[in-house]
């Protein structure tokens, strides 16, 4: 187990380094002169020079990279060109709404998605299976921003039950997390179903039945526990995607989170902030993958006792 | 005949394939007495496993038992509801399977898997259940029961897993044990040990065993009587010595003829030409006729009955060659 | 020419192969036709593609013609899906917009698939360093999950329809490379590939003549589903304001505009959304149907 963990940790480090490099190169991959782009077409040469200095583009590439890497380890990611605040100051207050949204959507999506998957597998080929799978494929196909808008139209505009935007009360979280979670719920429902169908065909499930266990114990204790190992993996990967998936929901519901910040920063060409956000999302995704892998080892005895 | 532990009468099991019902087991009848080992022999696909799953009522959802009776100590299992069946499974009838490694839950310790059935069928405390699990593991010849209880299946060998399966099956002292190819997936030396263990259990607990196998060696070693199945039907039934000494049905003759014998000096083994017919396109007459070298016109026209062929009624055969006279034609 | 014999042999083999392949295709069609949802989806997709081609000639209104006497009207007999803020007919605009939205999604998916397939084939076939290199690159791209990769690409190359297309294409590459790589590895071990190798076929020939056809099944299925994803991604980017800033109608930008009038004219959001939803649904259902038909092991 220790070796397994160590191996996974070590294999993550080069990936993180490569990604930090790719994100560093981000500004340099912009076609043309990024400083000119930021300063605007009618800016004077002096203005452009100032912007270039602000972005640190006037120094040799290697020096820039050295400074960037040093900044990463000291937590200094530069300053936003637009509002003068440091990048860390810009991002920090945006963290909480996004994380809250991610977890509230993950929780309902996982519970409902897995439940639909199990029910569909148990009633394989019958009406409940079809209903479950119709819900699932609809959830995968629905554009999340449209779903959000229709939810606002129904629950906020027509019925007046829930707020249209902001994050003042717990009620404000309901619609955004429904919007964000729909796709994940659907993915988990489909995956749990196929995983459960496979597990239910296993010999040990037949053994459990031959013992005289009730069908619900057979399904939950024997089949589901084995499927759960795979389901947790898939669910974990979805959390990683969710954080950045908040872009759509935060735009629709005007929530001051990281996703909205990313879109705004791209539109304002605030490259330092964009860079930091991309790095944050990618790192977070890789770290969550790592945690999921370790968790997989913890719940799967075959890996645990290697 | 003495009292019967299990009596299967005219069992007919069908399953749905492409919207039509196909008969997998047709008009199968046999019985087992307490302490008796009955062999159920045939090629794969002949319906022997379906027969065993029918007894447990563990058939897949697309299957149904459309006719017959399954009497366990005189009680018809087919009339039991789901709840009643659950009380019988594991307690009165237990089952072990072909792939011991796959038949144990990979993410559950052996202890949990054993005590689960013990707690279900007995009014035991957890400690009593643990002690019983320890005892049964010891009784199936596992050297360190404590270690094994704490293990996961993947930490055990195939032979150990099958011992655990047998321990699990015997943990509630069932009267009938159904063993579906219990040694097929194991090494030859382990096979012998497992068979010995089962014989031992039979002798000690007077358990009736239905031994399902395609291995005539296992049959010769273990069983007192044999039922031979072909294409979902019983083609021959006989005490084991008589079957090997004097097989009546051409199919049985073929089966026995295709087993190598030590010192017989035969260069090539005879095999039965052709293959088992598909269940949905069965020949009209005798199901074996297309592969039978003795086939007569009548064999292709009319299916023979399973008829008594000796005075004592211990031997039965389904063949036109014997039917009319009771002797070989 | 010593080749003559071989050629005629090949022709013979091809002649034998042909009726077999035809009957195989017939069997596939027969099996596919039994899956009603997939057939209906296919019909819907055909309709949408037809609209993309002939839409501008058959719609009831000029999609660009404003009508200031009928602004933001709800669905009526004259305008079945209502009108927008300029009084333009929503139905006509959506049908004409099919061309832009579908072209964008299809082109992006085709480009992304082509690159992904080649990378996947090479990685799976050659293995070793090439494989690790390609797969590590995919890992890096995968670190920007879902729509984030497309957003990052747009952030680099800027906004606009073509750039959205490139972004969606890039976003298609890594998942395809992975799928085709694993398909290639499993085909590589098939006996007929061993035979080809033992007959002395060159690597390139083995790769494209023997292995590539073996991966086509998973390619078709995944392509179909990725078109759905691409439509979603493209319309999401459009909605976020990264799309075309042109007057030509496009599903995502129509929805985005409609958002400003959600209180007064909800139909401006409802109908574009339904159309995107149904189209993506159709591609996904078709993909499901194809998978079930091609691979009976599933389900």
Automatic annotation (TrEMBL), chain A:
Cited Pfam families: BPD_transp_1, BPD_transp_1_N
Spans through the membrane: 12-30, 99-123, 130-152, 172-191, 273-299
InterPro entries reported for this sequence: BPD_transp_1_N, MetI-like, MetI-like_sf
Residue span(s) of domain ABC transmembrane type-1: 95-292
Main location: membrane
Domain of life: Bacteria
Keywords assigned by UniProt, alphabetized: Cell membrane, Membrane, Transmembrane, Transmembrane helix, Transport
GO annotation (BP), single: transmembrane transport
Subcellular localization: Cell membrane
Example of a GO cellular component annotation carried by this entry: plasma membrane
Recorded topology in the membrane: Multi-pass membrane protein
Family per record: Belongs to the binding-protein-dependent transport system permease family.
Role, per record: Part of the ABC transporter complex GsiABCD involved in glutathione import. Probably responsible for the translocation of the substrate across the membrane.
The name this protein goes by in its record: Glutathione transport system permease protein GsiC
Organism: Blautia obeum
Top-level taxonomy: Bacteria, Bacillati, Bacillota, Clostridia, Lachnospirales
Gene name as annotated: gsiC_1
TrEMBL record, chain B:
The keyword Transit peptide appears for this protein: no
Any GO BP annotation: peptide transport
Enzyme class: hydrolase
Pfam families: ABC_tran, oligo_HPY
SMART domains in alphabetical order: AAA (SM00382)
Family as reported in the entry's similarity comment: Belongs to the ABC transporter superfamily.
Stored PANTHER family: DIPEPTIDE TRANSPORT ATP-BINDING PROTEIN DPPD (PTHR43297:SF2), OLIGOPEPTIDE TRANSPORT ATP-BINDING PROTEIN APPD (PTHR43297)
Protein name (record): Glutathione import ATP-binding protein GsiA
